[in-house]
Amino acid sequence: MADVVRLTKRYRGATVVDDVSFRVHTGTITGFLGPNGAGKTTTLRMMLGLATPSVGTVAIDGRPLGELSEPWRHVGAVLESNDFHPARTGRDHLRVLARLCDIDDARVDVLLDLVGLTAAGRRQVGGYSLGMRQRLGLAAAMLGEPRLLILDEPTNGLDPVGVRWMRELMRSFADAGGAVLMSSHLLAEAQHTVDQVLIIDQGRLIADAPLGELVPPGGDLEDAYLDLVTGTAGAVR
Amino acid sequence: MSAIASERLKLTSTRSTTWLAVSLIGIVTLAAVVHILGFETAMVDDATEQRSILTDIGVSMGLVFAAISGSLAITSEFRHGTIRPTLLKNPDRISLLNVKLATQSLIGAALAAAAAAYAIGLSSAFLGARGLALELDGGQIARLVIGAGIGGAGFAVAGLALGALVRNQVPVVVGLLIWTLFIENLLRAGVPSIARFAPGSLGRAIAAPGPGQFDGLLVAAVGLTLVAAAGFAATRAIFIHRDIN
Q1: Contact residues on chain B for A100, CB-CB shorter than 8 A
Q2: By the 8 A CB rule, do A49 and B87 touch?
């Protein structure tokens, strides 16, 4: 569904993403984990065409994003929880994007209902809570009924009910034949959610394995993560 | 067509453009009060003086606001982060800029032409209140309004180009104001042979040529179009390769 091959990004001589390769599989939720500044968001931005790789390629459904005639049908993404004009209503935000993709307003209303923002849809986004913005961003990502969702810290700002809602939504999306790539630094939450784990540290991918392979039965993703990233899991235990 | 429909909805789903138009009307009104009602009779009673005043208070203000409108079309996308969901839906950055070019040319033309027409109407009323008359003939009035429209389109494109290059809204708007209201005036006073090629002089010359400016509407219009097109082409070449944070 998504193939990342030898992705590298250098800024002024510093390598922030270094030779990263992985695949996001249909029907799975892949957790993209790593410390702050490890290169997670830069990798996601390169996958989405917002940043140009210094080296490497990204293919979505076998083709570079720029070569897809209707990219919104292949991939939807939320990178920031504040990508809205505060004076625009939530519904209008979605309608603006829907126009861009030739999508009917009826789909906008379906999505507002799906993310629980039907009542708030006609209010300006400036008055939304962080959780509501996350939901609106997710609705925007799902506008084109894509097969791949890329979400940067999707549970940030959500209350426990919202976190569970997000988890169930991602699961049902993957179970319906989609794929989700989510970055997170909330390891306990990731352990409840993901099937596949990617761990990036200092720009290099240091783990790419199914959750069950990385974490033994009854084990803890946090320990496995700390073992890999700092080698200090024992000290933390 | 879908990208244009999206751009149109962006403009109508917030009040930014309305506020810009209201601000323009307010400034033109204030300027007309100061110039037409405040100046001595000898300074407002002949066609040459009236044409110069109308170029200052209508055309020039319209051009400035057209440039601001063009710059806001792209800098507000960066300011509020909407550039990201927009490019995620349509990664073709050239198409994004071209659509903004088309819509902002029209808005810039409308803003500047409306400012010129409003300045003429208001000034005529103010002159009437003082027992004076608007001395411009139909051709001069038409050139003020149509010329402002042509100039407004060019200024909107120049504003869009600057906005796409700099991205940060406040420096862009402040820079446009400083350039149009101060630097060009200094150039006109200090080096008029160079100043005649500056965007503001070209824009004013399209509507009503002043001392030291190009006389012909066509020459000035072509000059402004070349300046705006060169700026837009350079910015577009940079914009399509730059990373979006």
Answers
A1: 2-3, 6, 86, 89-90
A2: yes
